[in-house]
Amino acid sequence: MNIIVQILPYVILPFILAIPLGLYMSKLVDGEKNFMTKVISPFENKVYKWLKINQKEMNWKKYLSSVLSLSVMSFIVLFLILKFQDLLPMNSNHFTGMSWTLAFNTAISFVTNTDWQSYSGETTLSNFSQIAGLTVQNFVSAAVGIAVLFALIRGLKRSSVNVIGNFWKDFIRIQLYVLIPLSLVTSVILIATGVPQTFSGSKTVDLVQPVAVNDNGVPITNAKINVKTKAVTVNGKKINNVSIITKEELPLYAQASQVAIKQLGSNGGGVLGTNSAHPYENPSPLSNFIEMTAMMLIPAALCFTFGFSIKRRREGIAIFITMTILLTFGLVVSVLMEQKGFSLAHIGNLNMEGKEIRNGVTISSIWSVFATATGTGSVNASLDSFSAFAGMIFMILIQLGEVAFGGVGSGLYGMLGFVILTVFIASLMVGRTPTYLGKKIGPKEMRMAVLACLATPLAILLGSGIAATLKSTLGSLTNSGAHGFSELLYAFSSAGGNNGSSFSGFNGNTEILNILLGLVMIIGRFLPIFAVLVIAGSMAKQKVSAETSGTLSTSNITFIVLLILVILIIGVLSFFPALSLGPIADFLTRR
Amino acid sequence: MINVIKDSIKALIVATLLTIIYTLVVTMIGQAFFNKQANGSILTIHNRSIGSKLIAQPFTEKKYLWGRNMIIDTNLFKTSKGQTILYASASNLSQTSTQLIRQVRNRAAIIKKLNPGENNVPIDLVTTSGSGLDPEISPQAAFYQAKRIARARDISIKKVNKIIKNNIVEKTYGIFGENRVNVLEVNIALDRISK
């Protein structure tokens, strides 16, 4: 009961806001006017004019080639920025360019909306790379995901046409009407709660008390420190091999503007290495609440957008309920398991390891479920230090294909892939022609739906399988045994699911892992996009067949149960063996 | 084909410009209306900055309130003269890891020795946070150290407890987050009444 009271506020606000936002976005799908049109459309039209965009609608091939071409361009530009940031402006810390493989990995990661980070921003990236490189891609990759969903929705609702919308128009409008206004509001609120926003660059300040630190990074307690003679004594005994530190680094960037879009666009790529666990990205319980609302908002709203736009609200609500059930399952199990934690006699429960006091155990667990369910992948605690079982829930939420809301756009189009699969299975069981929203599901649509659903598991298993055979991978692990394997499996799940969170004890910044993880991200992103756009194209061409009493309902409870079963069965069949070597073994072997 | 590439370059330029304008606007609003927060919530005494309210500093002397355990990275940041600038990170160790358990036991033993007569060591003092830079501890962990601080400074426990009490931040609106105490602010307040 207590748990439910703690969880509710974090779920209620985004879900309430999701309905009006969903309606608002459905007008963008349909090209209708909304209350922002007056303000934005003059500027929007100027952009089109300047771009000399052909505003004609596209068929699926053209739409896909535009998506791919923009993504390739984005990759090239971001790669060059990261590689040659030392030659670019606003590099007050004089960081060198990234290595080839790290720049490759990072560029792919941000272009595919994954935002896996094999580096720490505060020790690697200039302000220019953060803003003109990463923040740009936070917007671009989110807009691409939503645009592909828009195309699919159009394909499902239209009949007997070839075209599914104009990608460039969708892309520009999603930014102007949705992402930028929401980010503006969110980032200003975040600054008010304490998230820095400055171009002045990092600062160093004097510590109130000088501190002596040994080689392992452990501060020497109760030590007398003479800063001038550099002598450190404890109870009169001299201590050697320690360094005396008198200054502290304060990593100041344009944090708020990037944190806002990283949460709203289910990117998750923060400015700083420890992401939203860092007090500068998430300073208070209030900022934590805002950031959690931001990450759930658009994915939840898109369910309603879908319902409004196809003029069958019940279908949108059915999907929303399905996602909510999966999310609730994750929330309850992981919160309970984490509260149980691991107790050490005479000391206490170690579940505070890796968590911040202002958030505490329960809220850190809720955040982590949100971040893995939505594909945001930002963290406000160390996922590596979560109990084995809670960590497994995060992993499963990613491995199911991130369909419990999922990434912006990608979550819902992934879910629609599962819906088509379920319709097909359910219809054949009762001997009916499989149709969804009055469109027949033929062999072509089925092949594509299977591709969309299996691309992610395939990429994850292949990638982690290859990495597990490499001896060098061992050097990347912080923990040993089953938990070490969990670190590896999590890394590839995160890459394949385009999530971006990590068990950060895992060091992904080696040449081979940078490349391998990068390839997994590409498969996990673009195979489903391809499949979805093919489906959109072929659905748009079909005529809508009339609904009869024999048509399978896709919005009742039976269907929701079936859909959840299909999602779970595919997930469990794909990942149970791997999970039993990692988190399950970790759970069973704990003392 | 060439048209598509041209279009994508143009679209990317638009996206980049929009992002830069957005970032500039947010920065201007932040600097104008929330100047202190936008610049890192830095605390100053007599115009000298002594750290940020949001970023933990390690305290190891008996007369100061101690915060979360910190794992300090001495290689990340250096001054131009090669001196280490402090920065910290998470342990990323599993709760059941023998390494973590050993470290926690060691830390607990040290803290217990310096706070004789107290009960079990509060868990937040022996665990490392997710950022490694958590600036706060629970009120219990703060009161636990009151006797030691009072003795080291030769002031009454009451005074120390009062300062801690004044610095307790309660859950936001009674539902969000946890009750907590900012370590640096308590220590500044302590230094103000007795050096």
Automatic annotation (TrEMBL), chain A:
<feature type="transmembrane region" description="Helical">
    <location>
        <begin position="131"/>
        <end position="153"/>
    </location>
</feature>
<comment type="similarity">
    <text>Belongs to the KdpA family.</text>
</comment>
<keyword id="KW-0406">Ion transport</keyword>
<keyword id="KW-0813">Transport</keyword>
<keyword id="KW-0633">Potassium transport</keyword>
<keyword id="KW-0812">Transmembrane</keyword>
<keyword id="KW-0630">Potassium</keyword>
<protein>
    <recommendedName>
        <fullName>Potassium-transporting ATPase potassium-binding subunit</fullName>
    </recommendedName>
</protein>
<feature type="transmembrane region" description="Helical">
    <location>
        <begin position="386"/>
        <end position="405"/>
    </location>
</feature>
<feature type="transmembrane region" description="Helical">
    <location>
        <begin position="174"/>
        <end position="195"/>
    </location>
</feature>
<dbReference type="InterPro" id="IPR004623">
    <property type="entry name" value="KdpA"/>
</dbReference>
<feature type="transmembrane region" description="Helical">
    <location>
        <begin position="63"/>
        <end position="82"/>
    </location>
</feature>
<feature type="transmembrane region" description="Helical">
    <location>
        <begin position="357"/>
        <end position="379"/>
    </location>
</feature>
<feature type="transmembrane region" description="Helical">
    <location>
        <begin position="411"/>
        <end position="430"/>
    </location>
</feature>
<feature type="transmembrane region" description="Helical">
    <location>
        <begin position="450"/>
        <end position="470"/>
    </location>
</feature>
<dbReference type="GO" id="GO:0030955">
    <property type="term" value="F:potassium ion binding"/>
</dbReference>
<feature type="transmembrane region" description="Helical">
    <location>
        <begin position="289"/>
        <end position="310"/>
    </location>
</feature>
<dbReference type="GO" id="GO:0005886">
    <property type="term" value="C:plasma membrane"/>
</dbReference>
<keyword id="KW-0472">Membrane</keyword>
<dbReference type="GO" id="GO:0008556">
    <property type="term" value="F:P-type potassium transmembrane transporter activity"/>
</dbReference>
<comment type="subunit">
    <text>The system is composed of three essential subunits: KdpA, KdpB and KdpC.</text>
</comment>
<keyword id="KW-1003">Cell membrane</keyword>
UniProtKB/TrEMBL annotation, chain B:
<keyword id="KW-0813">Transport</keyword>
<dbReference type="GO" id="GO:0005886">
    <property type="term" value="C:plasma membrane"/>
</dbReference>
<keyword id="KW-0630">Potassium</keyword>
<comment type="similarity">
    <text>Belongs to the KdpC family.</text>
</comment>
<dbReference type="GO" id="GO:0008556">
    <property type="term" value="F:P-type potassium transmembrane transporter activity"/>
</dbReference>
<keyword id="KW-0633">Potassium transport</keyword>
<keyword id="KW-1133">Transmembrane helix</keyword>
<keyword id="KW-0067">ATP-binding</keyword>
<comment type="function">
    <text>Part of the high-affinity ATP-driven potassium transport (or Kdp) system, which catalyzes the hydrolysis of ATP coupled with the electrogenic transport of potassium into the cytoplasm. This subunit acts as a catalytic chaperone that increases the ATP-binding affinity of the ATP-hydrolyzing subunit KdpB by the formation of a transient KdpB/KdpC/ATP ternary complex.</text>
</comment>
<dbReference type="GO" id="GO:0005524">
    <property type="term" value="F:ATP binding"/>
</dbReference>
<keyword id="KW-0406">Ion transport</keyword>
<dbReference type="Pfam" id="PF02669">
    <property type="entry name" value="KdpC"/>
</dbReference>
<protein>
    <recommendedName>
        <fullName>Potassium-transporting ATPase KdpC subunit</fullName>
    </recommendedName>
</protein>
<keyword id="KW-0547">Nucleotide-binding</keyword>
<keyword id="KW-0472">Membrane</keyword>
<keyword id="KW-1003">Cell membrane</keyword>
<feature type="transmembrane region" description="Helical">
    <location>
        <begin position="12"/>
        <end position="34"/>
    </location>
</feature>
<keyword id="KW-0812">Transmembrane</keyword>
<dbReference type="InterPro" id="IPR003820">
    <property type="entry name" value="KdpC"/>
</dbReference>
<comment type="subunit">
    <text>The system is composed of three essential subunits: KdpA, KdpB and KdpC.</text>
</comment>
